[in-house]
């Protein structure tokens, strides 16, 4: 874990310095900037593994910065927000954030969340000889981390891919939301179940928009999800 590169994007100097110092002491290679423009420039220059992104930036909203990050980088994005209302959470996840933390937060929790996020991706089960799972018009390629519908690549975030890969590894089986939370987010905190639901909604929307018809992710009410043809 030590030595992985992080970028802290926070306009308030005191908070920016605090977050950068806490993460540096945990062994990460940390850079820090104060604007969305500087964030995008630094990501292009240094390709960090994870960006800690404040929503309230002075030059543009953090959700727009996240949207632009997703267009050109596969880094993890952990959003920091002082406005933790449901709409802000869902908007943030919709543009590709992998998780969020509401201010104020404890330094220990921040380090734990960053460490957990950087432990992904990992195989949910032992990989099969064929790394490509084919289910009707859907293909999930573990080696290239690509998802295809009728041969066309679907643009997914890392978290969305990990969710789909977990389901595709066990087609037809119901996976509980708690199971997905453990395998994708590496946590058992029940308060994070909304993350599963929000990311699953985004994943379904993207697959539907790509024309997926013969395979689908079904909700098993009160339990979880399963991928079927």
UniProtKB/TrEMBL annotation:
The record places the DNA-binding region at: 130-229
- Name all OmpR/PhoB-type domain ranges: 130-229
Q: Which Pfam families match?
A: Response_reg (PF00072), Trans_reg_C (PF00486)
The record's annotation in InterPro entries points to: CheY-like_superfamily, OmpR/PhoB-type_DNA-bd, Sig_transdc_resp-reg_C-effctor, Sig_transdc_resp-reg_receiver, WalR-like, WH-like_DNA-bd_sf
Q: Does the keyword DNA-binding apply?
A: yes
* A GO MF label: phosphorelay response regulator activity
Protein origin, superkingdom: Bacteria
Tell me which SUPFAM superfamilies the record gives. C-terminal effector domain of the bipartite response regulators, CheY-like
* List of residues that carry 4-aspartylphosphate: 54
**What keywords are assigned to this protein?**
DNA-binding, Phosphoprotein, Transcription, Transcription regulation, Two-component regulatory system
Annotated GO CC locations: cytosol; protein-DNA complex
Domain Response regulatory: from-to ranges: 5-118
Q: Which GO terms describe its biological process?
A: regulation of DNA-templated transcription
This one is known as: Response regulator transcription factor
Organism expressing this protein natively:
Geodermatophilus normandii
């Amino acid at each position: 874990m030590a030595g992985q590169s992080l970028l802290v994007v926070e306009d308030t100097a005191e908070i920016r310095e605090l977050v950068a110092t806490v993460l540096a002491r945990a062994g990460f290679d940390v850079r820090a900037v104060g604007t969305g423009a500087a964030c995008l420039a630094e990501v292009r220059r240094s390709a960090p593994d994870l960006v800690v992104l404040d929503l309230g930036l002075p030059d543009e909203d953090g959700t727009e910065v996240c949207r632009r990050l997703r267009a050109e980088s596969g880094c993890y994005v952990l959003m920091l927000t002082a406005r933790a209302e449901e709409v802000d959470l869902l908007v943030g996840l919709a543009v590709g954030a992998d998780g969020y933390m509401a201010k104020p937060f404890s330094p220990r929790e921040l380090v734990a969340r960053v460490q957990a996020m950087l432990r992904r991706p990992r195989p949910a089960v032992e990989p099969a000889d064929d790394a490509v799972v084919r289910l009707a018009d859907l293909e999930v390629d573990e080696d290239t981390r690509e998802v295809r519908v009728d041969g066309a690549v679907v643009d997914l975030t890392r978290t969305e891919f990990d969710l789909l890969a977990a389901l595709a590894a066990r087609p037809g089986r119901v996976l509980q939301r708690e199971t997905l939370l453990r395998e994708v987010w590496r946590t058992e905190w029940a308060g994070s179940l909304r993350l599963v639901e929000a990311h699953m909604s985004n994943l379904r929307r993207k697959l539907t928009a790509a024309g997926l018809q013969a395979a689908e992710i079904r909700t098993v009410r009160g339990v979880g999800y399963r991928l079927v043809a």
